[in-house]
Design goal:
By secondary structure, this protein is α+β, with helices and mostly antiparallel strands. The protein is about 20% helix and about 40% strand. This is DUF538 domain-containing protein.
Length: about 170
């Protein structure tokens, strides 16, 4: 009788207060529990802690937020263009997505020029073993050397083609 009296409250607690275990692949030194809204220099320090190069975001960041579920918003001072290797990229004023270690998923606010079309970048993944950063544009992707993203890129207000850059030097 004592065993059944004890097991009933235990069953009740088990049903109403289930415990969930989760394991994170994020750097444990990151305080990702509280929402962050910090200075722009903090953003460039935060990205490498998530396995991302600081140069995937241009130099005109006004502010950013990072929620406890790792959804983020980056607000730029203005829209801008950046050249990475042979790829022209357009950043809208607001960039959104979800951070995970070495990746950005559900991205919006970034577009890459392919031939004569501007296509939305939907994700970014870093492959540390190959030293490449892969950008996803729908079902397509393009890999660029990670060394292209070591430095924070300078924002340009107009799309300047690589030939124009060389001739102006």
């Amino acid at each position: 009788m004592a065993a059944s009296t004890f097991s009933l409250p235990l069953l009740f607690l088990t049903l109403f207060f289930q415990t969930h275990l989760s394991f994170s692949t994020i750097d444990p030194t990151i305080d990702h529990i509280r929402p962050l809204s910090s200075s722009t220099s903090d953003l460039y320090d935060l990205l490498p802690k998530y396995g991302l190069p600081k140069g995937i975001v241009p130099d005109n960041v006004k502010s950013y937020t990072l929620s406890s579920n790792r959804d983020f918003t980056v607000e730029l001072e203005s829209t801008c263009y950046v050249h990475f290797d042979d790829q022209l990229v357009y950043y809208e004023k607001n960039i959104k997505g979800k951070l995970s270690y070495g990746a950005v998923h559900d991205a919006s606010g970034i577009q890459a020029k392919k031939l004569f079309l501007w296509l939305p970048v939907t994700g970014i993944e870093v492959d540390e073993s190959s030293g490449m950063v892969e950008f996803f544009v729908g079902a397509l992707s393009k890999k660029l050397p990670a060394k292209e993203f070591e430095e924070i890129p300078v924002c340009k207000s107009k799309a300047v083609f690589r030939a124009d850059l060389v001739s102006s030097m």
